[in-house]
Amino acid sequence: GAGVSQSPRYKVAKRGQDVALRCDPISGHVSLFWYQQALGQGPEFLTYFQNEAQLDKSGLPSDRFFAERPEGSVSTLKIQRTQQEDSAVYLCASSSPGLAGYEQYFGPGTRLTVT
Amino acid sequence: QQQVKQSPQSLIVQKGGISIINCAYENTAFDYFPWYQQFPGKGPALLIAIRPDVSEKKEGRFTISFNKSAKQFSLHIMDSQPGDSATYFCAASEGSARQLTFGSGTQLTVLP
Prior knowledge:
The complex is a heterodimer. Chain A is an all-beta fold.
């Protein structure tokens, strides 16, 4: 596709349930980022992949959060035992080195609501 | 710890006016400063970006002004239009780390 896609667009989970959020980056983009955006706030970094390697996971808020990108393309962000404070929009972005430099292109996000 | 401070939180401008949003940063290792536009229910979309080796960059109605010594940068939207009404985020990143540190956002409303 032409842009970054994410699924599902909306997810409602009961507290304690596990969820999995999917990101399809722009074809050929080697870098993939996950961000968390709370209501009315700017996105906050969660984790970063270069191809299949997770190079930085310093932003993951707890060990309940796990991300993977096994084949260097699609990525999944998994949240175990969801809590109410996990409610947010989860954004995925991709980029690729080149003349454009550091530009990151964002998907539409997945809005997670934990009840 | 907020590394990128953005102001104002909200801004109302008349059609045809100039919208100005300001950001200040603390980390002198930041070397890339983009601005993103976000509409409700959508992901942020890259508007314009600047590196610290230039003091100004213009693309159409959008201009970034950059003051390295003051560690500040701003977005100017000339001839603002109602379709520009959205939330604007400044951001910064450092070298190969690449992850963006965002400001808290400015909700812009352009009145017809």
